[in-house]
């Protein structure tokens, strides 16, 4: 027994390489044989000498049949039988043996049939759940010794290895098999082990299965196999091979399917939309992370719960209605409805629900994809409210300027009812002039720019045919080719401005009349006083005073004229002469005149144009005078004003440069507006009314030219104007058009 224990204790310490070592050296080199013929595979000669047979049974019934043959043969031949089995196997085995005529009670009483409970027996040699070699020998050794006494042969059925295997203790089962083999070195017995075939999981247990087979001298195939003829076996073998191949293909397919499923699962998880599945009765079976974010419930909370948990109570009916459609195989597409978050907040969602079918096309559940559209709807409602508000006219237009939608305020502005508008107004609105000259350029510049236009004044045609002054701004609607337009009626403001202009006009007239008389009388006085009777001294004094009065009246006249010009300009009534104007001559004349009025500055003309423009020499002269007087006025510490003359093929350019106060950028646009003056502390002392540049700009515009300023604070200023040249043939036509335009008041 000690030698035996030594042999057995080695593998117990290491159940891997060592166990195979013992097996190879001592016992299991016996090649594994598979019984090939005969009705009863466990026939007498199979168990001659020491054998260790293993059977992987397909089911209990076949195991019991095989066992009763194995034990029955033994009993019949006068062998002793030790049966270590589960209670259920004992029961079935005994029934089977008794049915075939054995008196088991007698056999037990005489010690030829020794039934032992597998679990209890095994417990006697387990230490910490593992079979212990010493204890095994102590428990099983005496049993076999007793049974082999008198030279009797012994047959053993051992089910303990199967129990260990079923408990997941595969290494322990293999070790126990090795213990049995070691015991077989000392005693001669036939040992029959059986494992349920279903406990072996193909590839997972492949190595252990092979190991078990190697630990046995014979492998008994399932009954269904042993009962076949040679031919049938070959067929079965081929069939099994085919099945194995098919299974291999199926495994590969299922692995690929699993990969696809994993990819799909990743998509579902990363989706921004809530994706969930449910049974037909509404029990949730899956719940992605977006569902958790949108509804506030975790997957753990929702899987197994009913989907109406996220329904508002007044909407439970909806569930039945949806499921009725799903049962019929009809999907529910982009259905907008309400749901409730875990925190009680109500949501607006757009849901798409589709039936889920099994491989036979039978519907067994539904998948739901839900998008939270609460914010989107809120924004829509907001803009809808703005659209419906009657504070401002709003329209939506496509990129060609075709009006697609308008609000009531807009219709009120143009005097149409909704019905009339539908029928005819878009035609009126999209009149070529409005479209081409205003709306379309505005839309294009908004699209090309930062997506919106500055407010611009224009005229809309009222249904009555009346022109309606409006202020319009546009903003592009992102990701669409449309834009939204805002229209403000400014007719009130315009009327007010008109009244103010009329007032200024009248006031100017009233001022001018007495000044004209005053100037006339002064002329007379001057002539009288210059006669010889007056003393030389008195004459000179009076003449000095009169000259000053004249200069003052000159200034007053200019101011009044300017006021009058602004008024006429607003009314579109500024009168222009039309003639050819030699630019160099005009500039020189004006410069000479202005030079006479100043002792502080020298006016220097640089360059010449040798060209002529078409227009009003007085008005153009007025512009130059204004620029030169400003240059002198706003450069008190300088002594030079430069006048640059330049001409290209198309235009002439006159630039007046001073070296004075300059103008900071923020004022560059505004100084051209009526009555605008830069009101810096230092400038307060400079006289003026803020209309000179307004008039100048208007005059240049009327001559088809441009007018602009380049300046920085304290760095002087350059006021430039450009006028189209008269000589170029290509311009004859446009100048004619311009002339036509200038004849018409309010042409702009
Ligand atoms: P006014 O000279 O009567 O004020 P203008 O229309 O001619 O009116 O000019 C408007 C404003 O532009 C002036 O008040 C002044 O602030 C500014 N400005 C015009 N010319 C110059 C200049 N050469 N240098 C600096 N500022 C100027």
What does this protein look like?
Residues 1-20 are annotated as: Disordered. Residues 260-330, 379-420 form the PAS domain. This is histidine kinase. Its main location: membrane. By secondary structure, this protein is α+β, with helices and mostly antiparallel strands. The protein is 49% helix and 21% strand. It contains 26 helices and 25 strands. The strands form six sheets. A six-stranded parallel beta sheet has the order 3-2-6-7-1-8, with helices on both faces. Helix 3 crosses helix 4. Residues 9-41, 43-47 and 728-733 have low confidence and may be disordered. It binds adenosine-5'-diphosphate. Adenosine-5'-diphosphate binds at residues 626, 630-631, 634, 658, 660-663, 671, 677-678, 683, 688-694, 717. Adenosine-5'-diphosphate (ADP) binds at residues 626, 630-631, 634, 658, 660-663, 671, 677-678, 683, 688-694, 717.
State the gist of this model.
With 748 residues, the protein is α+β, with helices and mostly antiparallel strands. The strands form six sheets. It has a six-stranded parallel beta sheet with strand order 3-2-6-7-1-8, sandwiched between helices. Helix 2 (17-27) runs parallel beside helix 9 (170-186), helix 6 (118-125) crosses helix 7 (133-148) and helix 21 runs antiparallel to helix 22.
Keyword list:
binds adenosine-5'-diphosphate, six-stranded parallel beta sheet, 26 helices, five-stranded antiparallel beta sheet
| Distinct small molecules | adenosine-5'-diphosphate
Name the structural class.
alpha+beta
Q: What percent strand?
A: 15-25%
The portion of residues assigned to helices is 40-55%
